[in-house]
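Task card 7
Instruction: Convert sequence to structure tokens.
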Amino acid sequence: MPLRNSALLRPPRRAPTGFRNQVAAAMDRLPPLEGQPVRLRLIPELRVYRRRLGRGPGPGTAVHAGSDLRRRITFLDQSLVADRAELVRILYHEIFHYAWVRLSNGQRHDYEAVLARELHRRARGELGWSAELRKRKLAAGDVCHRSRRWREYVCESFCDTAAWIYAGRPAHPEATLAPGFQAARIEWFRGFPRPGHRIAI
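Output:
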């Protein structure tokens, strides 16, 4: 019998029982996953400075989460324990970072094509702040040259879109993409993964 998705997570030993139950239930609502376990860490006042995660007051920007994909550790801000809806959305975003690095080039290019069509039609907005921030920094030529800015935007868009879809497409201040463009992304995710396949993370 295949393992449940929740078996892939390793919550902190001292995490509140409610938190452990929440993340387990959230993981088991996702399509079937496969991969090595991901450890979760709860960090008070999580922030990022020069692409490095830290804690407590200091320079940098406060963030909800971040992942070390190589070490397979996801760091979540302690405040998410008290916000169930936001915890699920942020957790899904981080889980799909693990999925993104395991997509085939063909899958990545297919998703890029969805976003390129949006930009050609001058679509505004996004389905999460991570993608929105990077979208605003795109310059002319980033798409055709597949620049680093473009590739980072595509990755964040993939993760934000997956999080929004699997969280139930909630009305959220960060979900500002027009419904017509949302529909194209939903359609792409209907074919991901292929029938009978599990999502590799």
